[in-house]
Each structure stands twice: as structure tokens, then as C-alpha cells.
Protein 1
Amino acid sequence: MKPVAAVSLALLSALSAAADGVAWEKSWGEAKTKAGLEGRLLYLDFYTDW
């Protein structure tokens, strides 16, 4: 049952982000400061095409 809950939570999170739009920060320092002030976590997305 736990995997189903985890997948459901991930889908709901994706839907809420898509509905509001995502405002990506371009500076690591500014993003870290803003997250700290707002009491939010940082989401890091790394991608490579080796």
C-alpha cells in the first residue's frame, strides 16, 4: 500500500505545480535565500545526456 501512496503523492504534487506554473530561480544563492525566508525546501533537478 505504501508504493501506491507514494505514487499518488507524486502525481498530486506534479499536478499542483503544473496548475500554478513553476517559477524557476536562476541563481543558486538567491534561491537558497528565498527558500530559507519562506520556510521551503529546494528542489534540485540535474540532467545530462552523455
Protein 2
Amino acid sequence: MGDARKIFMTGATGVVGRALLQRLAGDKRSAGRNMPAVTVLSRNVSAFPESAIRAVHGRISEPEAWLPQLEGCSEFVHMAALTGKARARDFERVNVEGTRSVLEACKRGGVRRFLFVSSIAATYPEHDAYPYGRSKLEAEALVRTSGLEWAIVRPTIVMSRRAKIWHSLESLASLPLVPLFGGGGARIQPIHADDLALGLEAWLQDPTLDRGEYDLGGPEVLTFREFLGRIQRRKRGSARFLPLPGKGAIAMLKHVEKVALPLLPMSAGQLYSFVYDSTARPNALQERFAGSMRNVDAILDDLLKYG
């Protein structure tokens, strides 16, 4: 990648964004390769002390403040999103309208290539109690009809020591008796954040990947029960489970969260991953790196190396 390349990113302070920035910085350290000029949009510019990264203060919903920074940009990587527990209207505002805002900014600023980091939750068969997944699905539709050269990447379950999902699952697996919503039979395909960054970097380098939708997961598929069991055996030496209803718990939480969402440990929608498979459908980008990605044991070796 040459010095003339300019990339603009949102969501660069997140787990995936940090992994991608580190991947690009690694290219700079490699002989004969240079890091492109990277500009990140953030409300916390002090989080980017690296001299090779330009941080611009702003919000995705207020493009007039940062639109001039798009001049000369070759790619726009949109990773910013609202996750976790939130109201449907907030997911709509950030994940749908925010995506609409940055797409319009790209068209006005002359950026032609747009990478949208979505979620495997967009592929779930229904989103009635999962406004996050629904918001990602709606945002994908905006990307497809944007008129830009786009790609959509849907990570499965992203693992990193900084990932909230990892700390939640580790805490769950550390219990003497692990609750398994839906019986733990849903299949997952965990991917390390560094391996996901490898796939995102590939899109930056390869325009033939444009106009494509790519589910990305690690090389190993297993059930939630098997995954939590591996964590529990590493931490406690044994694994004991308490099967619980899946869809029944979702229906109950859906009603309770109308009045008590901030008090709940999780939302109804967050239980969808215990009910529906979170696995990657075969695709060219997934196959390109499957042989070099960390399997589940290697991921856990990394995540649990410090206890």
C-alpha cells in the first residue's frame, strides 16, 4: 500500500477497529510496505497517540464537521455501532440513520469504496425481540443501494481480551453451574479479533472483493455448550450445566425490558445467540484465510494466558 492511499474509519476505538489499526501498523513495519494515511473519526481523539493516525473529533450523525477530511480518501471503513442493551429507537438512530449519514457523506466527499462491518445477527431468521440485529439488517440494505463500491462483512462472535462478549461468557462459564439458555445447542464459530482484521485488510487491498457479502468466522464450529465447557474446564477442571428455556426466556425478557431494561443483566435480543446459529456461510474471503486462523483452543490460550 502506497503513501497516497487515504483511508477513513469510524469505530476505530472498538475491538475490531483497534485490531485493524494494529494490522495496518504491522504493514508499516514490514519491509517494502507502507501504512496508508489513516484518519479516524472519534469523540475521544486522545485515544490515538500514534503519529501515523490522524484523529478527527466528531460524530457520525454530524458529517458537516468532518466532511472536508474525506477529500482524497480511497476507502471508508464503517465500524461504529451501538451494541449491548439499548432501546430500539437508539439502535435505529445510531446503526441505521448513522450509516445513512456516512454513506451520504461518502457520496458528497467523492469516496467510492465503502466497507460496512455488520454482524452475523443480521442473518438470524427473525429479529422481533432483537432491535440490534434488525438495525444491522436495515443498515445493510442502505449500503447495497448506496451506489458506492461496497462490501459487507458479518463477523460471527469476535473474541478479544477487550471484548465485552468474552468477559460475559467467561463470567458465565466460571459459575459452578452454568445456565444454558436453549440447551446450549446453538452452533457458534468464534473468530479472534486479529484474524477478523486480516479479512478487513484484504478488502482494503483487493478491489475484486467489492460488491460482496462475507460472513467471517474462525475455522472451528461448535455448540455453545461445548464452548462454555472448554472455558469452564480450563478454569474449574469440570463442567456442569443447567439447561434453561431459550425462546421462553426471550419472550419473558421482551415484556420485562419494556419497563426494566437498565436493571436486566441482558436483553431479550442478546439471548438470540443462544437460540440461533452464529456461523459463517461459505464465501471467498472466509476460504482465503481459514487455514491461518486460530482455532478455539488457540483463541482460549490467548484469552486466558493471564488468568
Protein 3
Amino acid sequence: MKDTRLIELLKSFSPEEMSGLEKYISSPFFSRKRDVAPIFKTVKKFYPDFDSDDLTNENIYHKLFPGKKFGDKKSDNLIRTLTSELLRSCKDFLAYVEFGSDENRKKFYLLNQLRRKKNYREFDKEYSSLINEDFKDGGEFVQTLMEKYFIKSVYMNYSLNRDRFDEAFHSMMKTREYSVVAALVNSFKFENEKLLATGYNLKVGTTAVDSLINNTDAGEILEDMKKNNSEFYPYVFTFYLVYKMNREKNGNEYYFKLKKHLNDYLNLFSRSDQYMFYSILATYCSSRTDRAEKDSFREELFEIYDNTLKNGIYKILDKEDIHIVLFRNIVNNAAQLKKFDWLEKFIEKYSAELHKDHRENMTFYALANLFYEKGEYEKSLEQILKIKFDLFLYKLDIRILLMKIYYELNYSEQAFSLYDSFLNYLKSAKNFPDHTKISGINFLKYTKMLMRIKEKEHISSDDLKVLSHKLKEENHVLSFDWLSEKINQLNLYVNKKKTSRKIF
């Protein structure tokens, strides 16, 4: 029994959920064909680990039916039936808990029941508390639209029941508007979602959404909405700018339009949408890998992160942990820009908001980056060596940083050993897109070449020129700026030595 679906599900229950489940199962209102309370109470004794050797079908049977013999097909089938019924009750309980937490869905069903029972007085009272065209206090914009769609559809039927045809027609028009706006916004959002999918090396086919957006003049729709003072114009226009930013070749123009637009209209949106928009802006800045504009967009990215923290929208809910990906990206960006004081304060304040499973490793990782950029390489190495490597998500980041530290400290033996293991890791990794693998392999190739040149007793400026030329010709290289900087440093060293010889 230890490996059954029932036990697997019960292991995930918190103590509070187990207590609630017991009350749910014991309630006559929720009772099923078979009484599963006795088997639940028997199985519950093995909570939370459920790893006792006594947790067998035979032992459970004897607890439920003392004195009866276990072993025939009938007794075994009975235990299987009871556990199956208990599993179904657990699932029903989870659905009940979810329904209980969904206030909007509950209000929809309540209104519908009041309408059917013609209790119009209570209907009016409940409905009046829901009349709110604001979207900033809800959840995600499209979800809120659809919730309003269902509430308004109930009111439409209510109006028909009471022969209020003008109100019914107005409600019908609202439901149509909600659904059309939701479809339009979802179409705009789809472009951004496709970009995320390709980032994870997922195949993206052609869908009905593509057909819709490719054959619709979205610009004209927006112009018409603006001309008619549509209440939804600022909302839809925001998602349109996201769409254009991701779709057009000159996305920078739309990035700055979106950034300005959000400064003016951010308060229209819920916190979850605000979080999403700033994440989209940050993703766009991170994707600007063109070497001519990379520095300016690093500063843009820092500004986005700084505003996200100042506005308290670096996570969707206060009770949530700060996402490990966001934390890592903020650390990397601030470290690259040498914002040391800012980064120290960030680590000190926000590392406590990481999930407990990642908190220690991410703090070590952040400090390693901070010390490296400050030129304190031994301190950086000390922090990296504290990380539980097998459990850490950012193995690629750690290997790159470790290679850089070995280079700075002239730990050639360790660097070349890391080179071999790093190369094997990249070649065998299945969860990286091809361009990431190629970029990582190129980083190793040029770092190795750089170290070979650095190890020579007499460093040749010609070798450095060749290496610099090859690097500039490469399209995909991780830490391109770092490699360029190290080549330039060696060039300065060579030129300085030449100048010193001329003096003497």
C-alpha cells in the first residue's frame, strides 16, 4: 500500500488539510456510497511519512475487520475498493477546498441559484456588491474579464426573468465586449508566450490565434477604440505594445512606448498584471544581445528591477517567496554594472524572502558574484565552494564564474580540469537550447585559448590580435564582454612592457 496513488496524495497534505479532510469524510453531507471514515482513521496513523512496514493491505484489513481472515480475492478486492473510494474522497475534498477559496466562482453560483429560486431581493443585494468596473483589485486581466462575463451573464438572465429587456440587452452587450476584449488581449499575449517557449527549446506550431492576429488590423481596432473612448482602450493598448515590441524588428521603439505607457497607466492594473508587465520589460532588456546596445539595455534592466522592488511588485503576493530566477537575474545585472553598495543591500534585504530550500545556496551565489566583480577572487571562490552543487539550479552560471575565478587566480590546473567536465556537461545537457550550448562551448574554447596565451613566458600581441578577431567574428559566445576585457588587459600588459623596454 505504501506505493499507491492514495498514499502519494496523502503525503502531500499538510496537518491542517488532514484535519479538514477527516471532518469532510465524517460529514453525512459529503458521504459517498461507502463509509471511508474507518479506513482513513486507520491509514492516518501512518501520517506523515507512510513508510512503516505495517502499512500493508493485510494489516489494514485486520484493523478494519478484526478476527476475519485476509488473503482471498474477496478480502483483497474489498481493501482495493475502500482505498479507491478514499482516494476519490480526497480528490473531492481538494476540489471543495479550491471552490471555497474562489470567491468569484462562489458568487456566480450563488447568484444563479437565487435567480432560479426567484429570490430577487437577495439577488439584488448580492449583485450590488459586485458592480465594479475596476480591474486593479482583481487578478490577471483576462481572468477578471471572464469572471465579470459570468456575473454579467447571470444578470442578463435575471433581467429576462423580470422582463427588463433593456437591462438584459445591456448585460448581453457587456458579456460580448468582455469576451471580445479577452480574445484580443490573449492574441496579443500569445506572441510573448511563443518567445518564452522558444527560449525553452519548445516547438511552436501555427494555431488559430496566429490566423486571427495575422489577418486582423489590430492598429485600426485600437484607433477605433480610442476614438470612441472605450473604457478598455488603455488596457488593450498596453498588451498591443507588448505584442508589437516582441513582433517588430525595431522593438526598441515599442519598448520605450510601453515603458512610458506603464508609467501613466500602471495603477489601472492588478498587482499580478503589474508583475507580469515588468517581467516582460525585463525579459526584453535581457534579450538585447546586440553588442552595440547591450550596455544601454543593462542600465535599462537595472532601472526596471529597481522600480520593481521600489513598487513592491517583485512578487505577485506578499506571502510568496521571491522567485529564484528573478533573484539570480537581479544579482547578475547589478554585479555586471558594479552597483556594489546597491547589491549588498539587496542581498541583505531580499535573500530572506527566498524559499528556504534555495535561500542558502542563492545567498552564496550572490556573494560570489559580488566579490568577483569587486576583484576579491579568493572570497568569491570561498562562497562558491559553499554551494551544494548537485542541488543547485544554476550549474551553468556556477561553472562560468568558477572558470573566471580560476583564470584570475592563475589556477591553471583547476581551470583545465573544469574545462573538461564543463564541456562534457554542455554536450550531454538536454534542457538547454542549441544556441545556449553553442555559446557555452565557445566560451570554453576562447577561455582555453586565452589561458594558453597568458601562460606563455612571452605574450605575443599578434596572438592576441588573432584571438580578438576570431572572437568578434563569433555570433554566440557566453560572457563575450568578459573575454574581450581579458584580451584587452593582456594587450595593455604587452604594450606596457614594450614601452618600459624602450625607456631603458
Protein 4
Amino acid sequence: MDEKKVIFSGAQPSGKMTLGNYLGAIKNWTLLQDEYECYYSVVDLHAITVPQKPEVLRNNTIELLAQYIACGLDPEKNTIFIQSHVKEHLELMWVLNTMTYMGELNRMTQFKDKAKKSEENLNAGLFTYPVLMAADILLYQADLVPVGEDQRQHMEIARDLANRFNNRYSETFTIPEGYMPKEGARIMSLQDPTKKMSKSDSDPNGYILLADDSDAIVKKIKKSVTDSLGVVKYSDEQPGIKNLLDICANFSGRDPQDIAAQYEGKGYGAFKTDVAEIVVEYLRPIKEKYDYMLANKDYLRDIYLAGDVKAQEKASKTLKAVYEKVGFIPR
């Protein structure tokens, strides 16, 4: 029997997940868990490149873990763990740091963007962030890494470092590839459909959180920006309506054009009411499971402790091979 290919991915505990996070990433992760050996991490080490309040970071970490599971990631089928609990991430990062060129890191567009936005917090962690990301991926000998467009440069650094190490010391790391899921949804802001839905949006009506209650979801969808045409059509000229149709299509499994056709001659009010009902009903079991787990934190603790052990077993094998090849004397 062929060995399953390995997938690694992680998300920062920077607050509650949006509908966009779910449809764009997590929903797809649940489709991979039978076919691949999956490692999913709450990457709290990455989070501290931005100043954090300790209690908030702890709460966000637990909440993200609960949302992973509420969204359908099965702890029996996936290794779900907390990044800072596996010390090998930082140890491998140091070795890779010594093989990463300053010019490579200077070229990172994400670093340049962050440097412009937060000059007072221009720390070394922001600069070397891609090296830690490479360590995350290479530790688990990941074949595939689900990545968005904004992470492609970081993915290339991980591949370059793997090749560089293999060429210098002999074959050690699997060369990872970016994985673009067959089904992916780019969900846009409800208030500005030219921008991606994000919880960093200054207008809370622009995004739906998985933790939102039914009333909040209904209000946000009813307030969503549309246009003055008054026709429900799947068209780039009507980005607000197109976005709502995409949300509907992702939850119902139907073609957005077919959904639009059933509203011929009807106004936006009826359409928005139906979209809100579909979203509320789909998210209801996710929200109920999420609330249940937050009320049962011992269960969550058991999950991440078991995941930590499994992740460390795999990571320690890789690090041991790296240390031997670099020339460190074994303990």
C-alpha cells in the first residue's frame, strides 16, 4: 500500500474565523483528511511578531483549536497541535536561518508591506518569519502545503531552503509544493465586495464570524452592499450580488447561475432573506459544536496534548537527521 502524502498547514490565533476563512481554507481541509496524512497547527509562535496580550493570545489559541474541530477536522484522522509546544520548530529555524540570505528576506513583499504599516514594530521576527514558516513545513516532510496567493513567496523560500540543505549535506527534506484545492472560494467583504472578507476590516458588517449568532448573521447579510440594478444576476458588474451568490453556491452545492435564475423578477430583499437563512442553517451545527467545546476545555486539552505528541514524534526524527548532517554531536 502506498504511503499517504503529507499535508501541513497552520493558522495564526489572531481572533475568530470568518466565513471567508472557512470557505476559502478550512472547508477544503476537511476534504483532505481521508486521502492525506495531515498536520494542522495553531501557529502561535508566528502570532507574536505583533505584540499580544498574553491572556488574549491564550484564549485565541483555544478558540481557534475549537473552531478547527467544530468545522470538521477530526482529531482521529489529523494531527492537530499547538506550534509552540513542539520545540523543534525553533531549533530547525535556527539552522535554516544560517542558510537564508538577507537578500531573499529583503525581497519578501509581505515584509515590505508590514514595514510600511508598522515602522515602530519592525522587529527581527517579522523579517525572519518566512524561515520559521519553512521550518514548520520541512519538519513534517510535507509534500503539499495549501497556500493562498499571499504566501507564494514564502512557499518558494521553503522550497529553496530544502534544496539548498539537500545539495549541501545530502537528501534530507522533501521538496514541498503549494497545493491549490480543486474547490476554493474567494469570499469578499459584504461592505466592499472588491476586497477579500477579513476580520481586520474596520467595518464589522463586512465580515461574518463563525461564532456570530443567527441574528448578527441575518443583520449583516441584509446590510450587505448591492447595487441599484435590482436584478439578481451572476455578473462581475454586480460584485455584491455575485459575492452573495458565491456564498450560497458554496453552502448549497448548486451552480450560482442556477440560483440566480430562481430570483428572476424578484427583488434583492427576498434574495438576501434566503441567503441569510442558508448561511444561518449551515453554520448552526458548527456554532453549537464550537460553544460546546469551549464549555469543555479539558476535552480540547486532551486533543492538543495528543496532537503535540504525534507532531513531536515526526518533527524530532527530521531534526535528528538535520543535526547529524550539520555535524552536531548527538546527546
